[in-house]
Write the C-alpha cells for this entry.
Amino acid sequence: MRLLSLTLNGQYKGLKNQAFNFESSQGNIVAFIGLNGSGKSQLLELIAESFGYLERFLRKDFKCRNWFPCLEIELRYSNQAFDSEDGGSIYSVSIEQNGAVKIYCDSKWLDLDDAKNEGIEEQILPSQVIGYSSGLNENLQRAFMKNAVQYLDVMNVKRAWVQRLDAINELLNEKGKRLTESNIELLDRQYTEAYKYYKIRHPALFPALPETSSLSDNANIGLRPTALPRLKYFDQDTTALMLASMGMMSDTEQQALWQGKQRFSKIYSVTLRYDLRKFTHDAGALLDIAKLIECLRGVQLHAFQALPRVNQTTEEFFNQFELDYLAGEITLDFSNHHVQDILVRSFFTPKVLFEKLYRLHLLAAHFWLRETKRQLRQDNFDRSVKRPQKWKSPISVLSLKLTDGQQCIEFDDLSDGESQLIQILSIASIYKDSRALLLLDEPETHLNPSWRTYFHSFVESAIGAGNEKAQLFVSTHSPFMISSLKRNNVYQFRRNQSGLIDMKVAQNETYGASFDVLIKDLFGLRSLISQSVIDEIREQLNEGNGHAKVWIEKNLGLSAEKAYLIRKLSQ
C-alpha cells in the first residue's frame, strides 16, 4: 500500500481546497511536522475518514448513509508492492459530495454495480488501516469507531436471526412426536417468511434460499461470514491483546523485535478474562475461546479458571461448542515453551491469534452509550466522541507480565517510553506482511532523545529491510527523527493568515541535519535556549552591559548564546 496523493475539494476543519502530494517520498515512513494546531492530526483524520467511508461503501454488509456535505475527496494510491514488475496498479478513487464512489484503474472506470466486481474491496482497499495516538486523540479514533459500530450492527442482525430460529426450533421440539404434517408445513412457512424478511433487508448476509420443503434442510443454511473491519485503532485495550499474542514468538524473535533496548524483553505470562454470556449468538467467538482453552490444557495445568457464580453450559450447548463455561479466565504461561509451540501449531502466527481476540473485543461496542452509537452511524459525524479506556468487553487482559530472564514486571508498570516503544514496534511487526497503511499520531512522544534518534531505524527493523507493502504516516514534533529522513519524506505544516493549513515538503535537506538547525528551520525559533531565560537576560541588560556580563557568566549554562553574548559584551 502506498498513498500517493489526497486532493480535497471543499473544507474539512482547517483543510480547504488543496492537494497533498506524497509521490516524491521514498521508503516506508512519511513524517508530518509542525507546531501544535498546525493541522498534522487533521490530515491523519481525513485519511482515516476517507478509507473508513470507502470500506463502508464497498462492503455490502455495511451501510452508508451520508458523506460530509460539500466535500469531495480524490485518493491516488498503489495497492501493490512498490517494486512489482508492472509497477502495480494505480487507483484513483473519488468520493463525491453525494457520497457516490468512482474508481479509475488501468485506463477505465470500474462498474461497481457489475456482479463480477462483488467483493472488489479486497482488491481496491488496503488490507489494514491502523490508527494509533500517544494521547487521547478522540478525533483520530472516530473513523475507526464508525466501522466498529457497523460490524456490531451486522452481528446484531445475526443475533436476531439466531433468536428467531431458536424460537422456531423450540416450538418444533415442544411438539415432538406429535408433530403433524400440517404442523410441519406451518413451521416451514414461518421459517421461510422469516428468512425472506431478513434477506430483503440484509441481502449481503443471507444467501438465496434453495427450493426445499424440509424445515431441517433450511435450518442448515449458514449465514455468510462477516469479515473484521479493515480499520483497527490501537488503544490501551487493543494493544494489550496484541501483546498477548506476541508471546507466541520465540524468545529470540521478541528480543530482536524490541531492539535489545528494553530491560524486559520477553512476555512471561498473560491472563485473559472472557465473558460471552451476552454473545452466545456468535458461534465463531465461542469456538475460538473453546479452541484456545483446549489447546492449552494439554501443555499447561490450571490454564483455565471459571468465574464465580457462572454455571456450566448445558450438555446440548457443550456438544455444539465444547465450551464448559461462558465466562472465565485463561492464563498463557509463556515461561513454558510448550505453550508457544502449541499456540503456533493451533493459530500459526501472532496476527491470527490477535485477530481472533480482537474479533471478540469488537463486540464491546455493545456496551457503548446508545447516543454514541447513534452518532457514529452517521458517516458525516465529525465531532469528538469519547470512548473510555478499559471499558467493559467480552475479552480483556487482566495481567500482562514481561521478564528480563530473572525478574518479572507488569506491562502497566513499565515507564511510558518503554511501553510505547514496545507497542509501536509490535504493531509494525504484526502487520509487516500486510498491505497496511499506518496512521501514527506522535508515536515517539514518550521516548527519550537517544531512542528518538533511533526511532526510524527501530521501525524499519521491525517491518523488515526493504519492506514494500506497508506505509507509515507519522505526525511528530521531534527533530531527532526528522534528521534520519530525507527531505522528500518530511512535510511541514503551517497555518496561513486565514487560519487554513498549508503543507509543503521541507525546504532544506533534513537527512543528517543537526537538531538545532532543524528546530530553527521547522519551528521558527531564533534561539535554542528557554524564552524565560531570554526575558531575564533582557532585564539584566537594562542594568548595564557590565552588570549583564557578570550575571551571564555566573548564572548561564554552556550554550552558543552564552558564548556569543559574553564576546559581544566584552568588546
Observations:
- The first strand starts at residue 2 and ends at 12.
- The chain has four domains: 2-143+451-512, 145-219, 231-434, 531-569.
- The chain is about 40% helix and 20% strand.
- Residues 81-86 have pLDDT under 50 and may be disordered.
